[in-house]
Amino acid sequence: MKEKGSLIFDLLSAEERELQRGFFQETLWQRGKGREIVIVFRTPANPPEPNDYIFRNGRRHVRPYYFEFISHVKSRWAGKTIVDLFTEEFRGRSYDYYVSAVKSGRIQVNGQRVSISYRVQSSEKISHFLHRHEPPVMAWDVSVLQIEPDVVTVCKPASIPVHPCGQYRKNTIVGILQAEHGLAPLYPIHRLDRLVSGLLILARNATKADCFRQQIEAGEVQKEYIAKVVGVFPIGEQVVDANVIYNAREGRSSAEVGHPHSDKSLKGKSASTKFTRISTDGTHSVVLCEPTTGRTHQIRVHLQHLGHPIANDMLYLSEVVIQRSAEGSGAGDDHHSVAPTFPGDDHFASLEEMASSEEFSIDPMCTHCPNLAPKGYDRHDEALWLHCVRYSGPAWKYECPYPGWAFLNEQNTDLLR
User: Fold this and answer.
1) Percentage of the chain with pLDDT > 70?
2) Cβ contact 39:364 at 8 Å
3) Catalytic residue numbers?
4) Could you tell me which residues are beta bridge partners of residue 219?
5) Which is nearest to 302 in space by CA: 390, 386, 363?
6) Is a pLDDT exceeding 50 seen at residue 322?
């Protein structure tokens, strides 16, 4: 699992860290307070707790906290100075910051302080102890649907990732459920993209998680989503069998269809989705989506392939579709602004200034302080009109309520069951 812009999560156990290194500490001055703060360089267990969250203007922020990232030196890094390595590979911070971090001991090699001219060797362990700021998410509740001895099901709001990834750790479904409901450990048995909402199933032990995994791999699990798409979707079952190619650099997928008279081999992964119209109001349609495979952005790219992309999916809407959708909309119907707005949204910087040292400690070396959100964060989190409604398998079925956008002013709603 990788941390975008930081080190890999190859976290050691507390016992191994203690065996490897002595603890160093650094004395800093609290900005604007004229008092000393002492930072001990070690990674606390630091599980998510209710008071870790700060709510401002409809968003859930995480109180910044200290965290240590640990990684092994890759072969292509070997021979670089420790400062050059961090500057070139982790560009979220400046050269001067990394010089200071090495000198103060926040960056170490094999649990020891080194000089800024130290050249790393392959397989050495490098660690970066920093003041971590997580991006905010929308402050919607994570509704617990069912709690069983081996399974928890929830209705996941859009904007919140399922599990720790990228810059997110506590601002995740798993973290929030631990903090607010005491549910831990949890093992997500399937994944929903951050901007997708709906049913999420989590096993409460590894044995149950493995049971779900085996059923999914055996093709015994049926998945159902609903989407609100552009235009009048055709009546009758529509099946898309088109390979999906994911472009990691662009963060999007494309559909690939073979031609009968072509010898060119397909590069994408095989993917199939069945679509059935639930309702339409003449401008949009609500569609039942049943993927039989699980490729990245599969439903989104297959709907685009059919010419009916999700109506607020800016990643897969073409300029022509955007124009057509806008022309067909009624007065005041903004298809692309479904995320709620709150007072002060136009003054996001002033929101960050509200984060006083009474709410969290300001670290003088931190490149994000005194802001609550990390610098460079894009504040526009738009909830996709894509929602997971049902998973079913051998002798079990879990469901999630439909969102408000799924009900159109039209008679053909017999599939809303």
Assistant:
1) 74
2) no
3) 193
4) none
5) 386
6) no
Q: Is 7's pLDDT higher than 50? A: no
Hunting for tokens 């079990």 — which residue is that?
Answer: 396
CA distances for 230 relative to 226, 281, 298, 309, angstroms: 13, 11, 17, 6
Instruction: State how far the Cα of 244 lies from the Cα of 302, in Å rounded to an integer.
Output: 9
Distance CA(397)–CA(417), nearest Å, equals 14
Task: Return mean pLDDT, the chain.
Answer: 81
- Name the pTM for this structure: 0.78
The dihedrals phi and psi of 171, each to the nearest 5 degrees, come to: -85, 60
Six-digit token string for 160: 């919140």
**What CA–CA distance (Å, rounded) separates 141 from 160?**
10
Check if the beta carbon of residue 31 is closer than 8 Å to that of residue 362.
yes
DSSP assignment, residue 269?
B
Scanning 234-343, the segments in alpha helix (DSSP H) are 298-305, 319-328
Tokens of 265: 């081999």
* Of 315, 47, 322, the residue nearest 181 (C-alpha): 47
What is the model's pLDDT at position 234? Answer: 96
What is the dihedral angle through the alpha carbons of 298, 301, 307, 309, rounded to the nearest 10 degrees? 90
CA distances from 21 to 104, 115, 247 (A): 15, 17, 41
**Which residues, other chains included, contact 174 with Cβ-Cβ below 8 Å and sequence gap of 6+?**
162, 163, 164, 184, 186, 188, 202
Calculate the CA 75 to chain-centre distance.
Answer: 29
